[in-house]
Amino acid sequence: MPVQIPDDSDFCSFREQCLSTEGWTSRYSKGGVTVWGREEDSSTVQKLKMRIVCKDVTAETLYDVLHDTSYRKKWDTNMIDTYDIGRLTVNADVGYYSWKCPSPLKNRDFVTMRSWLPLGNDYMIINYSVKHSKYPPKKDYVRAVSLLTGYLIQSNGATSSTLYYLTQVDPRGSLPKWVVNRVSQFVAPKAMRKIYKASVKYPEWKRKHNPGLKPWIFPEQNTLPCISVSELTVQRADSLENIDESGLSEEKTQQSDDEEP
């Protein structure tokens, strides 16, 4: 399937999904974080949606934090590696991301096309998985598939904002039910709070680390090599190895940093 860079209608559709309540079931609501789930046609590919109100963080700061890969390496303790592969347009690029899964599960990685759009008081970043011939699946990782993942940031005035995170990912593996439950009850809320805390500290950090460098706002600063959409295809899940981890028991699992309640 050819890769298409999202247009305004795709961003508007994503925003509607973030704000909609129809068909979503509340899975968690505590400490300012709400998590909803939505069962899709396939039981392995559920949609999750999260929301957190960031009372003392501006929408602009949140947007910067979610773009800044240098800073991400400071706060995203679940991340193993991330790097940008190349740029497609002024507001679209391709990148790699890998993250630690709780042992004994195998670690996962992605190659995704990411696109972003500031729209009035809203800021959006969305991605989906693509295939690039120079970045095939790795031996030690399970290549997962993002069908649609993204952030919606809404400004609540001069010093406050609301962050939505929506994700539909095929983990390429038959995961045990306890993993799915743990994601919505522990991993997701912790990740949202971690973004919030990181955003509070970001302005001070950025003042000491290339304060004027924000290629996501100033495209002329972008030094990534240009790549063509023709080099990419949509990553289909059925072309990847599917592993069965459904028999793994929770007792053997080592909890990661992101799994404290």
Chart the SSEs and their pairings.
Blueprint: H1 8-19, E1 25-30, E2 33-38, E3 47-54, H2 59-67, H3 69-75, E4 79-89, E5 92-99, E6 108-119, E7 122-132, E8 142-143, E9 145-155, E10 161-170, E11 173-174, H4 177-208, E12 232-234, E13 243-244
Parallel strand pairs: 6-8, 11-13
Antiparallel strand pairs: 1-2, 2-3, 3-10, 4-5, 5-6, 6-7, 7-9, 7-12, 9-10
Can I get a quick summary?
Keywords: Acetylation, Cell projection, Cilium, Cytoplasm, Flagellum, Lipid transport, Lipid-binding, Membrane, Phosphoprotein, Transport. This is START domain-containing protein 10. With 261 residues, the chain is of the alpha+beta class.
Structure overview:
- With 261 residues, the chain is of the alpha+beta class.
- The chain has one domain (8-24, 34-231): Alpha-D-Glucose-1,6-Bisphosphate, Chain A, domain 4, CATH 3.30.530.
- It has helices at residues 8-19, 59-67, 69-75, 177-208; strands spanning 25-30, 33-38, 47-54, 79-89, 92-99, 108-119, 122-132, 142-143, 145-155, 161-170, 173-174, 232-234, 243-244.
- The strands form two sheets. Strands 1, 2, 3, 4, 5, 6, 7, 8, 9, 10 and 12 form an eleven-stranded mixed sheet that branches.
- Helix 2 (59-67) crosses helix 4 (177-208).
- The chain is globular.
Keywords:
single chain, 261 residues, alpha+beta, Alpha-D-Glucose-1,6-Bisphosphate, Chain A, domain 4, 11-stranded mixed beta sheet, two-stranded parallel ribbon, 4 helices, 13 strands, globular
